[in-house]
Amino acid sequence: MGTTMARVTAVSSNGTYSFSKPNRESITLLAGLGVEGDVHAGETVKHRFRMKHEPHLPNLRQVHLMHEELFDELATKGFTVAAGELGENVSTRGIDLLGLPTGALLRLGEEAIVEVTGLRNPCAQIDTYQKGLLKEVFELDATTGEFAFKSGIMGVVRQGGVVRPGDPIAVELPAGPHRPLERV
């Protein structure tokens, strides 16, 4: 068949704060927390800047998903980026992550379910990683004059489970009207 099945291409986690996350054979998602053993797992915010100012807020960034199609696009502009290098936990192929509405459910593998909460807000660390990369993960919409953020999406774990490279991804859309993703 000519259809591309949406799938997980890599999984990554890191127990300490660093920009990139090493690839793993599998990761375990924990309901309400995130990726087991990952520094960003928890019920309340784990983003270093936000922890200083809003430590009590719910963690809407438990899992970071990134589409590998972005890596292909960046390669045409001279950047070499591989799974986990931009800090994502789950790399995907064959699914329009950025086009999903807020509240969409992603079934990763047999058990895990992640609810999409919003767009990743890319930070200046991306330029520290590779000079000039930050401007490539933004796109100015000529029609609206608004910026589009292309560096993946964030979600919270609604049902735990093990996720491995090669696992299928199934999407369940929320009841309408759909709300487009905003930065979280």
TrEMBL record:
GO terms for molecular function: catalytic activity; molybdenum ion binding; pyridoxal phosphate binding. Residues 21-172 form the MOSC domain. InterPro entries: MoCF_Sase_C, MOSC_domain, Pyrv_Knase-like_insert_dom_sf. SUPFAM superfamilies: PK beta-barrel domain-like. It comes from the Bacteria. This is MOSC domain-containing protein. The lineage of its organism: Bacteria, Bacillati, Actinomycetota, Actinomycetes, Kitasatosporales.
